[in-house]
Amino acid sequence: MTIWLLAYPVGEYVPSRRGPQPTAAARIADQLNVSRASAGEMLKRLEAEGMVVRGEKKEAILTEKGRIAAMRIVRRHRMVERLLTDVMGYDGAESHDKADGIDAGFDDEMVERLWERLGRPERCPHGYPLDARHELRENPTLKPLSKFDTGSGGVIVRLAEHDGDLLRFFYDAGLTPDVEIEVVHEANGSVTIHRGEDELVLTQDQARGLYVRPTGVPVVPADAACWGAKGERTIAVVAAN
């Protein structure tokens, strides 16, 4: 899952407009908060299983088999986050932390049943699509708030998940998916925004973690079958592309 998020940047890094990116072991170690040696051992196992190949600089590149597996894991994690928020009453920040400990216990059939029971949601609580096709199509329409000019704005679509404290800040500040914001001032490494009648001052790190669809950019429509019976075929099509 970590390699997928780094190879197809959709939250932790700027949304990709260039397709999949090679992923260095050092970046994987940083994301997982483990040593480079541990990350290297993990990559060796994935390589032996045919999930990744190593590039000229030992970077990790997902194979088709690896992309299919990664997308299943990503969807499962996001679906379990919805279970935690929609059924168990956790907020979005709590769901992200708790899903890491329980999502491995859900197989594909359980996730499909969960999707049906929750009313066929399209996104996780932090705004990431469950459908891999939709995720990749939407990436080019988003940009981090830190890249916006004064006077411009849009609608928050996704929240960066790589930092639990940062995610908690977003929820506490009311900076959640579907909220409209506008940049009113930039100075000394900070970004001042309007959220409705409220004015908030964000650091650059906070602004980089908000992925916004600029005003005037059309919404990318989601496929109704973002999971469920067509899920496996969806994954195969994306991987092949």
Q: Could you give a quick summary of the protein structure above?
A:
This protein has 241 residues and is an alpha+beta fold. It has helices at 2-7, 25-32, 36-48, 64-86, 92-102, 108-117, 132-138, 164-172, 204-208, 231-240, and strands spanning 52-54, 60-62, 143-144, 153-159, 180-187, 190-195, 198-203, 210-214. Helix content is 42%, strand content 17%.
Care to describe what's here?
- The chain has 241 residues and is an alpha+beta fold.
- It has a domain at 141-214: Ferrous iron transport protein A (FeoA) (SH3 type barrels, Roll).
- Helices cover 42% and strands 17% of the residues.
- It has ten helices and eight strands.
- The chain has helices at residues 2-7, 25-32, 36-48, 64-86, 92-102, 108-117, 132-138, 164-172, 204-208, 231-240, and strands at 52-54, 60-62, 143-144, 153-159, 180-187, 190-195, 198-203, 210-214.
- Strands 3-8-4-5-6-7 form a six-stranded antiparallel β-sheet. Strands 1-2 form a two-stranded antiparallel ribbon.
- A hairpin with a 2-residue loop joins β6 (190-195) and β7.
- α4 (64-86) packs across α6.
- The chain starts with a helix and ends with a helix.
